[in-house]
């Protein structure tokens, strides 16, 4: 089974399913979204959609409004998952800044009860927000089957990545997906993932095919095919893996088996 392990909810959903079918992808793991850049036809429309995301990344947000936004986004996600259960799995967001008990309560109410398969995407806008992830890690020790997916490209710094690395080592029961392989710091991240059982690599948004080639060569059992749609294309990212990987078993693992194993799924 071929699974795109990281896509954001795209509207209309039928267009997202068509992209999967055109790419020969069986299922995708959906993440919530606030902006919808797929709606944009001009650069100004794109700027308008992305302005909300930039505010989130920079930390310019009201905590109460942020939680309400997450609840609404989860509702939108669940509507799609319930309508197309044969096409999608889901990951759900968890707010930063809650107490440990509040975080566990949120996970129970919005992640576990909805049968979501992991938490994230977390998009830390600064090093302090990366440090705040420790509460999430503490909560997830109770749910070791739930991975955490963290954005590690810009604006996350090398210092922020090192904070995340230390959290991953400190909480070995928590599976951690390093989204976008650390961006420009991909060598550091690949080296770390290679020696860390609970660390995994998301292959989307790579700025070079060489980065993906090295990841496949070093940690094929830790690589997860993904497109980050609508920011990437399922077909193109799948073709890149097929082009770079000659070994049929490794190719099948990266395109689906690795994430099925990580999430304890049969299909």
TrEMBL record:
SUPFAM superfamilies: Metallo-dependent hydrolases. Gene3D superfamilies: Metal-dependent hydrolases. It comes from the Bacteria. InterPro entries: ACMSD, Amidohydro-rel, Metal_Hydrolase. Residues 66-265 form the Amidohydrolase-related domain. It holds the Pfam family Amidohydro_2. Keywords: Lyase. This is Amidohydrolase family protein. It comes from Fusobacterium simiae.
């Amino acid at each position: 089974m071929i699974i795109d392990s990281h896509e954001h909810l795209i509207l209309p959903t039928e267009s997202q399913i068509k992209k999967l079918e055109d790419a020969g992808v069986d299922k995708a793991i959906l993440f919530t979204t606030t902006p919808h850049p797929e709606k944009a036809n001009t650069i100004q429309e794109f700027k308008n959609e992305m302005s909300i995301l930039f505010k989130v990344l920079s930390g310019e947000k009201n905590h109460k409004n942020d939680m309400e936004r997450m609840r609404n986004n989860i509702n939108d996600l669940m509507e799609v998952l319930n309508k197309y259960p044969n096409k999608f799995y889901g990951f759900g967001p968890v707010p930063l800044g809650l107490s440990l008990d509040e975080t566990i309560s949120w996970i129970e109410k919005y992640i576990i009860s909805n049968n979501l398969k992991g938490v994230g995407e977390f998009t830390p806008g600064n090093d302090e927000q990366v440090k705040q992830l420790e509460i999430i890690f503490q909560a997830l020790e109770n749910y070791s089957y739930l991975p955490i997916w963290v954005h590690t490209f810009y604006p996350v710094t090398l210092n922020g990545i090192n904070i995340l690395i230390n959290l991953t080592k400190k909480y070995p029961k928590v599976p951690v997906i390093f989204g976008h392989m650390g961006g420009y710091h991909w060598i550091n991240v690949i080296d770390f993932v290679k020696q860390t059982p609970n660390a995994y690599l998301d292959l989307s948004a790579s700025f070079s095919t060489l980065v993906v080639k090295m990841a496949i060569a070093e940690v094929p059992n830790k690589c997860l095919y993904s497109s980050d749609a609508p920011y990437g294309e399922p077909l193109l990212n799948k073709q890149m893996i097929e082009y770079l990987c000659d070994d049929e078993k490794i190719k099948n693992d990266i395109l689906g088996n690795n994430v099925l194993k990580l999430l304890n799924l049969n299909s």
